[in-house]
Design brief:
Length: 374
């Protein structure tokens, strides 16, 4: 099978780079549709619009409705047509960026993503996760092209609440765990094709950077500082994880995350990365990783305050029916869990989800972990 590598055309990251948006985006077009939700318009959207207008780029301001659904993408596409935009700019979290990708792709326009949090690896990829209006994952849309430009202003990102950065770290820590499984199984990347050495190396680097710098970056973020550690972790969450998952492949962690999105209840209050965090530890349990490897992950996740017990993910009182529902979705035909180097049944998933909780409780006891340590 042929190897495939995907990446954005240009990635620019730094403190206050938004001020240079006119110069970078001006190379792509002069009529921009800027998509951001109400909150993000206030914290960054209006500034961005002023910056673009000063560079003679006309701006059509659009408020994102909040869900990346087919209907929402079609609505924004119509607005873009009316405004005769030639470049689409998504500004905000993963859902806003995914919706902007859908619009740019439907109209064949240039695309810029400007994440205002480092909460996911959505900014660089050529895929959108499409949700039902009720918030369950419906499908993935794959595009022929990644974003033309990814602009990451680390000052904006460090001003966001730390929960976003931590969620992005969790999404990025899944990257190597999953890419390694795909490598072992000779599986395929999400858009089809075999992974490249480059894709795998980038995924592995994400893990290294995150184990080395996550805790320092989190402290910088809590104090709204842009340190080198913060820059490193933002790059790991965004660029390394983005290329790493797309060109390295997904396996069990994201499939289990998809199972979590399909059930009702408070689990919906968790972010994408938080659900992926539990899925990642569950994948390590499925893989029967030895004690030191499992403990290395659990120790970091606990220090970052990520959810690693059933109580943390609001499934403490879940019934077996709930667990099997999650597992059925996670093991559905076509799910990335089939990239694992061995066959995984829905019962294996249920045992590993419960096994994660059981083992983490043991870890906490052995390490004298108290909840206030978070
Ligand atoms: N396409 C991909 O490759 C890919 C990869 C990973 C995740 N995703 C998708 O990303 C989505 C999750 O993204 P998310 O976790 O960013 O959530 P989100 O997009 O739902 O955004 C969450 C909230 O963050 C707020 N926000 C944005 N910037 C902020 C800031 N600076 N300060 C404070 N609040 C801010 C927004 O107003 C929004 O209410 C999911 O839909 C997931 O499927 C896609
Ligand atoms: Zn993810």
């Amino acid at each position: 099978m042929e190897k495939v590598f995907l990446s954005p055309s240009r990635y620019v990251q730094g403190k206050d780079v938004i001020k240079k948006a006119g110069a970078y985006i001006g190379k792509l077009g002069n009529r921009a549709l800027v998509l951001a939700d109400k909150f993000v318009w206030n914290i960054a959207g209006n500034d961005l619009a002023n910056i673009l207008e000063r560079s003679d780029i006309r701006v059509e301001k659009v408020a994102f409705g909040g869900e990346c659904s087919k209907m929402e993408i079609d609505r924004i596409t119509e607005l873009s047509k009316k405004a005769c935009s030639n470049v689409v700019i998504g500004l905000g979290g993963g859902k806003t960026l995914d919706a902007a990708k859908g619009v740019a792709n439907q109209l064949g326009l240039f695309l810029t993503t400007i994440p205002t949090t480092a909460s996911t690896d959505a900014p660089t990829s050529a895929v959108s996760v499409i949700y039902t209006d009720k918030g369950a994952v419906e499908s993935y849309r794959f595009y022929n092209k990644n974003p033309d430009l990814v602009l990451v202003d680390t000052r904006i990102i460090t001003n966001a609440p730390p929960r976003f950065l931590v969620s992005g770290i969790a999404d990025a820590l899944a990257t190597w765990v999953e890419a390694r499984a795909v490598k072992q199984s000779h599986g395929q990347i999400v858009s089809g094709g075999a992974p490249t050495i480059a894709g795998q190396a980038i995924a592995e680097k994400a893990e290294q950077v995150l184990f080395e710098y996550s805790l320092q970056a989190l402290e910088a973020n809590k104090n709204k500082l842009v340190t080198s550690a913060l820059e490193s972790v933002v790059e790991a969450n965004t660029l390394l994880s983005g290329i790493g998952f797309e060109s390295g492949g997904l396996a069990a962690a994201h499939a289990i995350h998809n199972g979590f999105t399909a059930i009702d209840g408070n689990i919906h209050h968790l972010t994408h990365g938080e659900k992926v965090a539990y899925g990642t530890i569950t994948q390590l349990v499925l893989e029967n990783k030895p004690l030191n490897e499992l403990d290395r992950y659990i120790g970091l996740y606990l220090q970052l305050g990520l959810p690693v017990t059933l109580k943390d993910i609001y499934l403490e009182n879940a019934t077996d029916e709930d667990f099997y529902k999650i597992a059925e979705i996670a093991t559905a035909e076509g799910e990335s869990i089939h990239n694992m180097p061995f066959k995984v049944t829905s019962d294996d998933v249920v045992q590993a989800i419960k096994g994660t909780d059981a083992y983490v409780k043991n870890y906490k006891k052995r390490h004298g972990w108290r909840e206030e340590q978070k």
